[in-house]
Amino acid sequence: MASRIAVVTGSNKGIGFAIVRALCKEFDGYVYLTARDEERGKKAVEDLEKEGLHPKFHQLDITNQKSIDNLQKYLKDKYGGLDVLVNNAAIAYKKKDAASFAEQAEVTIACNFTGTLDVCKALLPLIKPHGRVVNLASFVGKRSLDGMRDDLSSKFKSPSLTEAELVSLLEEFVVAAKAGTHTEIGYPNTAYGMSKVGVMALTGVQARDLKNDPREDILIMACCPGHVDTDMSSHQGTKTPDEGAETPAYLALLPPNSNGFQGEMFQDKKLYQWR
Ligand SMILES: NC(=O)c1ccc[n+]([C@@H]2O[C@H](COP(=O)([O-])OP(=O)(O)OC[C@H]3O[C@@H](n4cnc5c(N)ncnc54)[C@H](OP(=O)(O)O)[C@@H]3O)[C@@H](O)[C@H]2O)c1
Question: Which family does it belong to (predicted)?
Answer without folding.
Answer: Belongs to the short-chain dehydrogenases/reductases (SDR) family.
